[in-house]
Amino acid sequence: MVRDEVAVAVAFVVKIDDQDLGAFNSCDGLGCEVVVEQREEGGNNGHVWQLPTRMKFSNVKLSRPVTADSAKLMRWFSGMAGGLKRKTATIEARTQEGTVIARWGLLDVIPIRWTGPQLNPDTPKVATETLELAHHGFFGPGTGG
């Protein structure tokens, strides 16, 4: 009997149109939902119709301590000063040894927020940055694992 082992992801490697933005240690918001409209039918008191209308994709937030890879992110962001173009992205969940355990492809990606570290000498802590991406859906083989 073969048992699947539960793999624990410790890094999320992000590429935007094959441009490597480095590894992040936190990834939040990978998901989607079907937006449902409710319709009541006259004379039918037994139920309310639930009609699917469209797919809605949540923003993806990636966080990490500030590292040398932060410069890659800043170069990528500053390259968009002339205008934003929607791109594709891949997020790979990897183990500590670097084994890919899941991969997600994102369509029509645009960056919507970068938050840098809060620098305060009174409360020293790890300097972190967060990247937030909006997208229009998932693509590719191996999506979601």
Automatic annotation (TrEMBL):
GO: which molecular function terms?
Answer: structural molecule activity
User: Which Pfam families is this protein grouped with?
Assistant: Phage_T4_gp19 (PF06841)
Say which domain of life the source belongs to.
Bacteria
What name has this protein been given in UniProt? Phage tail-like protein
Organism source for this protein?
Answer: Micromonospora polyrhachis
